[in-house]
Design brief:
The complex is a heterodimer of chains A (151) and B (631).
Chain A: E1 10-13, H1 17-29, E2 36-39, H2 42-49, E3 66-69, H3 78-86, E4 96-100, H4 105-114, E5 118-121, H5 126-143
Parallel strand pairs in A: 1-2, 1-3, 3-4, 4-5
Helix pairs in contact in A: 1-5, 2-3
Chain B: H1 2-67, E1 71-73, E2 91-93, E3 99-103, H2 105-115, H3 117-120, E4 122-127, H4 140-150, E5 156-162, E6 165-175, H5 178-184, E7 194-203, H6 205-268, E8 270-276, E9 281-284, H7 286-292, H8 303-309, H9 315-328, E10 332-339, E11 345-356, E12 362-371, H10 373-435, H11 442-473, E13 478-481, H12 483-498, E14 502-507, E15 513-516, H13 517-534, E16 540-550, E17 553-560, H14 592-602, E18 606-612, E19 616-624, H15 627-630
Parallel strand pairs in B: 14-16
Antiparallel strand pairs in B: 1-3, 2-3, 4-7, 5-6, 6-7, 8-9, 8-12, 10-11, 11-12, 13-15, 16-17, 17-19, 18-19
Helix pairs in contact in B: 1-2, 1-6, 10-11, 11-14, 12-13, 13-14
The chains are: A alpha/beta (151), B alpha+beta (631).
């Protein structure tokens, strides 16, 4: 799913293929998925962000505009990924949005403790889900100004 | 046994006093006998003196007559010439012609004795073994006396009964002198021979009467003294008996007290000790020997034996406690162990204090040793049970925590994983509808919409069950809740929902309570929501909210005149996902009342409902209030 353009705008961390498909479809319908990378677990997400393993050749100085992070992930779960991102100077400034099925208070609280930029739960009803994803994409890609990168 | 002792003691005292009484009686009787004897002697002496005087008088009289050779008297009928007198000139005539006859001394004396016997109270006789006048012949006693004179006796005394009266008879010999020979020479008497005797018989009547008087006086005085003595002995006996009884009673009391103390100590397992510091002697009560399990026959009480019985690990402690107590003049109270010979350990509580002299020198220590082994063992048992209990509580808590964690993990899993497939079903159905719109006919589209409706309902159910589970798990934060304000806020929230309906909501005075604001808000929301929902089919609906304090509880109600319910299902109302109406009639999953019930239960209260089909329903809930609140 990586594209030729080096500038990755959205990193989607989602193990569930159907959720990923619904998300990407919605973003596409809103022209927001042109530079989107989809990784299926936490380990891969960290490899991508820290330019290691499979992504060693990637320019780690080019961070995504936003990370859409699910919490229930195989290998390294979402909270660990969040902790790693926010615990490292190289990645701390990357906006991370938790996009998950739960609305558990403790998930929300923990995420904010770790420094999440936004927390959104995925509605079950498709219309509501599509609306949420579209608004998130719009906001983080079009409205929000990320800090200038090291370059 | 005690009575026997008492009796034998009493017998001892009685015997002693009987002996004393006998001795006393013998003394008094002896004294009386002695006195009576003396009296009799005295009587005899007096009588003898009288008799002797009488005889002496007769002798003198006769002597006087004899010295004159007799006396001439005028002969009378009473005094004829003595026929037994054969001397010249026995009868003479005076110059004037008066006839006279010679009265020899014996004649004179006999006549005097015969004529005036009563003048002297005596009967006198002159007698002889060879009388010239037969009248002067001796009687049997006189004869015996005269014979004894012949043998050399100087006098003879005897008491004889004469005519039934007691008489003292006395006889003195009559010795021949020259004057006698004038008349009696012819009988062959020589000078110094016993011519005869003069006897005097004195009536003892007056003497004996006098003696009797004296003796009875003595008897009376002795009797009185004897009685006084006996009375004294009696009093003394009683006093001694009383003293002995008192001593015995005191001894009994002492024995009883000692027994009580000893028994009390035995029962309480509490022994006492008494240490005389100056004499360096230690005394133990029996119970101390029992506690220490020391044979009092083999070992006397001593500080060394005591220290030996103490557990080696506690010896220093005890020694120190005692010595410091003596030094600091403060009682000590310690617990320590004893080590028995067979290795058993006993626990004792030892309390002691010391008494000091005026100069501040410690004189005597006194203390107790209380066997508290059973208490220590009980304490140990309690401690062990407590530890076990704590361990069990810990184990149970771990189990509970585990179970809770599992439940949480389950609900977390439900929260995350159950929604994802639903979203896929809904999302992909929607994609099908969008992407294949031309290929699907209306029936196909309707079926897909049914699928999507049910995913929505399923999502709601998941939502509700998670909510219900959260109500049971989340912590509560209690504060003073203005229930009236809370209810009013909820009523305001529902206003948009009721807009356009002819619905009247009345809010009465509601008492405040201590509770969790968010949870109680939820309860009002659920109950008022229900009331609004179930009055939805009614033209003119009324809802009333009220409350009061009753029996230590705040009771609230929300009453409506809506659809109501059948009372036989009243219990079912509060079950999870329990519904009494169809979805088509009234929407909802049936979780609201279950959540409300759980919230009220967590406040320590109860929730219940009354209703009638078609007439409406009233939901009540109560929450306990603190007592000062009630007042």
């Amino acid at each position: 799913m990586s594209n030729d353009n080096d500038v990755v705008e959205i990193l989607l961390v989602e193990d569930n293929a159907t959720d990923a498909e619904l998300t990407i479809r919605t973003l596409k319908q809103n022209n927001l998925a042109n530079n989107l990378v989809w990784v299926k677990d936490g380990a891969e997400a960290l490899d991508f962000l820290f330019a290691r393993g499979e992504y060693a050749s990637r320019d780690d100085c080019a961070p995504p505009r936003v990370v859409l992070l699910d919490l229930r992930l195989p290998k390294v779960d979402g909270m660990e990924v969040l902790r790693a991102i926010k615990g490292d100077d190289r990645t701390r400034t990357i906006p991370v949005v938790v996009l998950t099925s739960s609305r558990e208070d403790r998930d929300i609280a923990e995420s904010y403790q770790l420094g999440v930029n936004s927390f959104a739960s995925k509605p079950v009803k498709f219309e509501a889900f599509a609306k949420t994803v579209a608004e998130l994409g719009m906001y983080w890609l079009l409205v929000n100004h990320p800090p200038a990168t090291g370059k | 046994m005690k009575t026997d002792l008492h009796n034998s003691l009493a017998a001892h005292w009685r015997k002693r006093y009987v002996l004393l009484a006998v001795v006393w009686s013998v003394l008094v009787i002896g004294s009386l006998a002695w006195n009576v004897h003396n009296e009799k002697q005295s009587t005899l002496r007096t009588a003898t003196a009288a008799a002797r005087a009488n005889i002496s008088k007769d002798v003198s009289f006769r002597k006087w007559a004899a010295s004159h050779g007799g006396v001439y008297v005028a002969p009378t009928e009473h005094t004829p010439p003595n026929p037994y007198l054969n001397v010249p000139d026995r009868d003479v005539v005076t110059t004037s012609g008066k006839a006279l006859t010679l009265m020899n001394p014996a004649y004179m004396l006999r006549q005097m004795q015969a004529d005036f016997p009563s003048d002297f109270g005596t009967i006198s006789h002159i007698t002889s073994l060879k009388p010239l006048n037969p009248k002067n012949i001796a009687d049997a006693w006189q004869f015996k006396a005269l014979l004894s004179f012949e043998q050399g006796a100087k006098e003879l005394l005897e008491i004889q009964q004469i005519d039934g009266q007691p008489y003292l008879r006395m006889m003195l010999p009559f010795i021949v002198d020259s004057s006698c020979l004038k008349c009696h020479a012819h009988q062959g008497y020589k000078l110094g021979d016993v011519r005869g005797g003069i006897s005097s018989d004195i009536s003892l009547d007056s003497f004996l009467a006098h003696e009797r008087e004296h003796v009875s006086g003595m008897a009376l005085s002795h009797g009185a003294i004897w009685l006084v003595g006996l009375a004294g002995l009696g009093i003394s006996h009683r006093r001694d008996r009383r003293h002995a009884d008192e001593r015995e009673r005191a001894a009994n009391r002492l024995r009883r007290n000692e027994h009580s103390l000893s028994e009390a100590q035995r029962i309480a397992h509490l022994g006492s000790w008494d240490f005389d510091i100056e004499k360096n002697t230690l005394a133990w009560s029996d119970e101390i020997y029992r506690i220490f399990e020391i044979d009092p026959e083999k070992f006397g009480a001593s500080y060394e034996v005591f220290l030996d019985a103490i557990h080696p690990g506690d010896r220093m402690l005890v020694d120190k406690a005692y010595n410091e107590s003596v030094k600091n003049r403060a009682p000590y109270d310690i617990e320590h162990r004893l080590l028995m010979r067979d290795g058993r350990v006993k626990y004792v509580n030892e309390i002691g204090e010391t008494y000091y002299g005026e100069d501040g020198k410690p004189l005597r220590s006194f203390g107790i040793v209380h066997d508290i082994t059973w208490r220590k063992e009980a304490e140990e048992k309690i401690r062990r049970l407590n530890t076990e209990l704590e361990q069990r509580v810990v184990a149970r808590t771990v189990e509970l925590v585990d179970a809770n964690k599992e439940l949480e993990a389950f609900s977390y899993s439900v929260s995350h994983d159950l929604r994802t497939p639903l979203r896929a079903i809904d999302g992909f159905s929607r994609m099908l509808l969008e992407d294949y719109e031309e290929k699907l006919d209306d029936e196909g589209k309707r079926l897909l919409n049914v699928v999507r409706d049910n995913t929505g309902r399923m999502a709601q159910l998941i939502e509700d069950i998670l909510h219900f589970s959260r109500v049971g798990r989340t912590g509560m934060s209690f504060s003073e809740i203005d229930m009236e304000g809370l209810a009013r806020a909820v009523v305001d929230e529902f206003k948009p929902l009721a807009a356009g309906r002819k619905l009247k909501i009345g809010l009465g005075k509601l008492p405040g309570v201590q509770g969790d604001r968010a949870m109680l808000h939820q309860v009002f929301e659920n109950l008022l929501g229900n009331a609004i929902k179930f009055t939805g089919h009614k033209e003119d609906a009324h809802i009333e909210i009220g409350g009061k304090i009753e029996g230590g509880k705040a009771v609230y109600y929300i009453k409506d005149d809506g659809a109501g319910f059948d009372m036989q299902y009243a219990e079912k109302l509060f079950g999870v996902f329990q519904r009494l109406h169809s979805i088509e009639e009234f929407e909802g999953t049936g979780i609201g009342l279950a959540i409300s019930k759980r919230i009220i239960a967590r406040h320590g209260g109860t929730i219940w409902a009354e209703g009638e089909v078609g007439k409406g329903a009233t939901f009540y809930f109560s929450i306990p209030v603190s007592s000062e609140k009630e007042a």
